[in-house]
Amino acid sequence: MLDVVAQAAQDKGFSNIKTQQGYAETLPFAADSFDVVISRYSAHHWHDVGQALREVKRVLKPGGVLIIMDVMSPGHPVRDVWLQTVEALRDTSHVRNYSSGEWLALANDAGLVTNSLSTDRLPLEFSSWVARMRTPEALVAAIRLYQDSASAEVKAYFALQDDGSFTSDTIMFEAHKAV
């Protein structure tokens, strides 16, 4: 993915973009380095979200902004367990989807000030969803069996379709480092 970003930047004539791989929990950057930090659909792979948010705060300049977009836990225990199970079967690097309340608490605990939060619903077409992660066929079959055995409440909430497609919750929130 970093190679794709670097090539796209070069193709567009951007000379101020540098790619670097690292862990969210130990960002390889100096304190007060960034005006903006953006995470798009990656936070559910972080092993310690609280530590990652503290690292974001460290590398943000005073007044700097964090924007996170990610799949979100529905917050309801039965629905949450269903979603986390499906996600883990599809992608073994999945750690956890957090609810909006959990995100607010994590950001606050990290010393960030939340500016805004919005949620939405994201339709996921099953075959392309599992293909993106190259989910092994045995796990695809396990997901389908798990979907078939879901309660009527879960099927309705996630708008589960006969082909396995479903709709998930998403979150986007913006927070900043106090001046």
Automatic annotation (TrEMBL):
<dbReference type="GO" id="GO:0032259">
    <property type="term" value="P:methylation"/>
</dbReference>
<feature type="domain" description="Methyltransferase type 11">
    <location>
        <begin position="1"/>
        <end position="68"/>
    </location>
</feature>
<dbReference type="InterPro" id="IPR013216">
    <property type="entry name" value="Methyltransf_11"/>
</dbReference>
<protein>
    <submittedName>
        <fullName>Uncharacterized methyltransferase ycgJ</fullName>
        <ecNumber>2.1.1.-</ecNumber>
    </submittedName>
</protein>
<dbReference type="InterPro" id="IPR029063">
    <property type="entry name" value="SAM-dependent_MTases_sf"/>
</dbReference>
<dbReference type="GO" id="GO:0008757">
    <property type="term" value="F:S-adenosylmethionine-dependent methyltransferase activity"/>
</dbReference>
<keyword id="KW-0489">Methyltransferase</keyword>
<dbReference type="Pfam" id="PF08241">
    <property type="entry name" value="Methyltransf_11"/>
</dbReference>
<keyword id="KW-0808">Transferase</keyword>
